[in-house]
Batch of 3 targets.
Target 1
Amino acid sequence: MVLDLSDEKPQLTPLVIGLTRPPMMWGIPLNAFYIIVGVTLIAFLVSSSFWSVLIAPLIYLALFAFCSRDIRILDLAQVVGRRTPRTPNRLFWRTNSYGP
């Protein structure tokens, strides 16, 4: 019985990044695209002016920069918002504090 202790790299099957990436439109995740559409529509309904459409490229650039480091940052923020409970002493400490 011979034990091979060589420093060869193991043979790995590459994982295709497209299988793990969320659905995207124009380089941003779909939920970021929905945010752009929603904010633009609300701005249009409030102002009743087509000039409110000019806010969409600004929001797109901000979300593109925000999602460029981590593509799932909006999903993470959504989970934190849903799963982190508000504490009674939030007004005193101006944050959630689970200690006294």
Target 2
Amino acid sequence: MDTVYIFLQHYWWFIISLLGALLVFLLFVQGGQGMLYLIGRTDTERNLIVNTLGRKWELTFTTLVTFGGAFFASFPLFYSTSFGGAFYVWMLILLVFVIQAVAYEFRRKPSNFLGEKTYNWFLLINGVLGAFLLGTAVATLFTGAPFTVGLVTGLLHTFMGIPAILAGILTQLALYSINLKIMGKANQSINVDKYGLLISLRWVKEFALHNPIIMVILATAVVIGVLYWFFGTELGCGIRATGSNPAMSRAQGINTNFNIVLGLAVSNALVALSGALLSQYQGFADVGMGRGAIVIGLAAVIIGEAVFGRIFHNFALKMASVSIGAIIYYIVIQLVLTLGFDANLLKLLSASVVAVFLAVPYWKGKYFSKPVKKAKEDAKNA
């Protein structure tokens, strides 16, 4: 019985992975629609683009429906959790794909009372929002709609003018009550025998696809790949520019408030996905399990940047360095504890490790950089 159960798990994961990969590939239709006015300068050019994509849009929609049906048949808890917590996201997905179908059907009809430009905008909306909303929905398959958390934080900061740090604190304070309400109690067990979990501590010694180490590596690779693609788009580049230099971004006509809200929403979705995987791995969820996570996240970023900053120049590798930085952080912590460090001082140790790695770039610039001789500078200026 266990052999059949494991076989069915692997079989359905293969089917879902295959359908998901096919869906991602077919999203080039949405990519073409999103660039309808960027590439097509005239009505003739836009008509050529639409005619090229119009033969393939049905494949994307059919694959999406099949992907959802396969998820419902194989992992109904994931499916119901996503639809229960991200109901409005799925309704928006349905809406943008319905207007796509209507646009392709009635765009060039003689009796079209809305006008061709209206349906062109329908295709543009589907191209921009379709892929983004699908990514949002996939991120909520485990935890409902954490996307909303970042949205609230962003609106508190941009719409209400509350400072960014204080907006995050207020949202975190409100989430404590929401988490208690959702969980029903402060600590909730997640038994692998009762639920169809993606990873579990029980499988850590098994050499199989559901081994936590293998599964986390695969999940990390998928997330990095999706983020690499997203931040390479025009919208993603706008978010990166907003983070680097908001003033210059506003001067270039970028809506920085929108990008701040969107960036916070995406980051909180990733945080929620990480928390869901951790809860499944350890077999329980606790209302206070996120305390101190910001220190670990900061340590992962700083350590990855300090160790691999001059080695990794590709954006995807920079994101991978964050994961490697987290591994290095835990290796250092475990090494110190093995040497007999008092476990009661673990938080002090964590803060010290982060402080040291934060100071490394400063020490490099101040004490180890080669001084520029003033005589040479005067000669160059002369």
Target 3
Amino acid sequence: MRIGKKSSKREKKAMSVSLYANLMFVVVELVMAIVTGSQAVLLDGVYDGIEFVMLLPSIFLIPLLYKPSNEKYPFGHMQMETVFIVVKGITMITVTVGLITNSINILFHGGRTVDFGVVAWFELLACVLGIIVTFYLKRKNKAMNSPLITVEMQGWKMDSMLSLGMTAVFFLPVFLPFKGVGQLTPYLDPFITIVLSMIMLPIPVKTVFTGIRDLLLISPEEETVSEIEQTVEPIIQESNCVDIYYDIVRTGRKLWISAYIKLNKDELSVRKFKMLQTRCIAALSEKYTDFYFELLPEIELDMEELEELQEKQEKQQMENKNGREDK
């Protein structure tokens, strides 16, 4: 299955919208972090900063992903996408851990007082805008199923969660101005930064592990493998095969699927074999946008037949040699 140039342009356009939205958020959040002194706002701004820096090369990478494979690049340029996603995930993990460490240090040194009312209203606005961008990317990605856009959506979801959590918590001192709450307010900002960071951390961790699996050409997660098997096996079983096994790898957004079948008889119509493969491709295309599928017969070697063939070849060679000597 191949995806045309129009998809490349649509993907680039969607990523460009995310790029400009990130740039706006970075500038506003960093200014707000400096003005209010909030670590939580800084966390949000740094995340958006990473998104922006990593988005720049990804937009130039998109045209390469749509180039066909050739002898030099048998898997195309898909692995470049996986490397990019892994680097981005590692960067986000590093920054998150760094902010957790810094926030713990602030907690042990008396906390920090910020203007919670200003921060709360700002984060509420950021949450709404983040949700709008997330839904925009989700709608655009329905037809493309792009890993780059999927990772972008995850980033915007994380931003929206972060902003929503900060909105709820930072409104507490505003609407609950009790004495006990006032004593805790210096610790509120670093505490919420730690909590939200811990909630967000598994997302880039999962992204990195999935990317490393793909780079090492390990089969995808069990859910993907099971879905592929459930899609093609009912069709392949019509060949009356006795066994089926698969080689499945993923390079970036593309799946490479090989299904090997053992037949219970020596012959199978080439026409029927081709028809089964075509039906499998049609069934898979309803669930995956970019994949390669091949259906192959598993040829078992009969050792006795092989030995007989070798003996015949050796005998023929000896006869040819003796014939040349007689001449």
